[in-house]
């Protein structure tokens, strides 16, 4: 199976609404992700070849070219990070596992997400200061994580499982904690439990 076929199979029509143009964009982003995850870098030519398309198609679908492809890959990686950071942040998880268990699940999920996309993150974060599309993706996902964290804090406080305090400050603390997990010391540790 080609990378293009794999990308369309992975993304599927529900992730690529809007027809052929959206499916083409999704296939190009998937080819970019595959290159970044395996090599840590890519060229437009490599992505076009991997996706079975021309370089002109990249520039038709991504006017920012390489930065547009990188932003698409970063957006997908951040989707995974936000999902990992919000999955354990539920009242049910907190009541069933306590605050320590919930925080351990948060750290484990984020370690898994950041480890899987470490090279994607590294490439995107290196370009963040120069790329508006990367900054926009980062801010959008950070805002989503903050909203979910605030809701978790409010529910935890209402249940008496999280200490009183400003929910916005505690939500920001959770977001900063999550961002700090993307650290080579933690991700490279053989015994993360001790950290």
Which structural traits does this protein have?
single chain; 195 residues; mainly alpha; Tetracycline Repressor, domain 2; 10 helices; 77% helix; 0% strand
Please state the structural category.
mainly alpha
In CATH terms, what is the fold-level topology of the largest domain?
Answer: Tetracycline Repressor, domain 2
Largest sheet at a glance?
Answer: none
The coarse silhouette is: elongated
Q: What gyration radius follows from the Cα positions, in whole Å?
A: 19 Å
CATH superfamily of the largest domain: Tetracycline Repressor, domain 2
Instruction: Give the averaged pLDDT, no decimals.
Output: 89
Taken together, the total number of domains comes to 2
Note the gap between the termini.
41 Å
CATH class value of the largest domain:
Mainly Alpha
Known CATH architecture of the largest domain: Orthogonal Bundle
Report low-confidence residues grouped into runs of 5 or more: none
Number of strands: 0
Strand content: under 5%
Q: What share of residues is helical?
A: over 70%
Number of helices: 10
Return the string of H and E elements.
HHHHHHHHHH
What does this structure look like?
The structure is a single chain. The chain is mainly α and 195 residues long. The protein has 2 domains: 3-63, no CATH class; 68-194, Orthogonal Bundle (Tetracycline Repressor, domain 2). It is built from 10 helices and no strands. α1 packs across α2 (20-39), α2 packs across α3 and α2 packs across α7.
């Amino acid at each position: 199976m080609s990378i293009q076929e794999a990308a369309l199979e992975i993304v599927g029509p529900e992730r690529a609404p809007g027809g052929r143009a959206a499916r083409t964009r999704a296939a190009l982003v998937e080819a970019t992700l595959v290159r970044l995850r395996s090599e840590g870098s890519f060229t437009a030519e490599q992505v076009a070849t991997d996706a079975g398309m021309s370089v002109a198609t990249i520039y038709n679908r991504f006017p920012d070219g390489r930065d547009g492809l990188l932003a698409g890959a970063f957006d997908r990686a951040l989707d995974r990070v936000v999902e990992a950071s919000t999955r354990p942040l539920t009242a049910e998880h907190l009541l069933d596992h306590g605050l320590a268990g919930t925080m351990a699940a948060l750290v484990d999920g984020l370690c898994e997400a950041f480890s899987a996309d470490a090279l994607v993150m590294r490439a995107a974060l290196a370009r963040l200061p120069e790329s508006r599309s990367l900054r926009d993706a980062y801010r959008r996902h950070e805002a989503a994580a903050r909203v979910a964290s605030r809701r978790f804090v409010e529910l935890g406080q209402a249940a008496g499982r999280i200490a009183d305090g400003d929910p916005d400050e505690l939500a920001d603390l959770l977001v900063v904690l999550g961002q700090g997990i993307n650290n080579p010391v933690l991700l490279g540790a053989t015994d993360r439990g001790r950290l």
